[in-house]
Amino acid sequence: MIAPDKVRQTLLPWLGSRFLDSQESLCKQVAMILFSFRKDRDHLIQLAQRIDNLLFMAVRETTNARMALLMDNGDLIRLRIDDFRLMADETLYLLFDSMEKTPDNQAFIREFALRSGSLSALRALYLLYDHLHSPEESKTIRRIITTCHEPFRYRQWIRRPDEEQDPWEK
Length: 170
Fold this sequence. Notes:
By secondary structure, this protein is mainly α. The chain has two domains: about 1-95; about 100-165, no CATH class. Helix content is about 65%, strand content about 5%. The protein has eight helices and two strands, in the order H-H-H-E-E-H-H-H-H-H. Strands 1-2 form a two-stranded antiparallel sheet. Helix 5 (about 105-115) packs antiparallel against helix 6.
């Protein structure tokens, strides 16, 4: 099972603790949606859309359609429609992380990454399935991540060329 606390941790930078504290069941709902996914019957695109819609409606209803949330640093942030797609994609990494690390799952995630451009799928390939592909493939995945996605989405987990060690080891 994917823990609601992990969902909360994933969504915290996007939604802030004030909103998430007021929406106790939201992280549980997202965790259950991810947990109920079966790759032989479900589609990742539809799963992401379902999470996107759930998050959008929760924010819309809570903010009376203003779509503005108070972040932990005191900033008032107005969420855009595309932010919900990105949040849903971020939660997909929790699903990929919970899957058994097999060549079959690697192929499944790789196909999704190629079709959707999902950063979470690329992240899973780069971090979780590194042992199943060559160093050249790892470099290619890294290059795709760093050239096709905004740095704020990957700087917490990918080494930059100017770093001598992983950011979380500092």
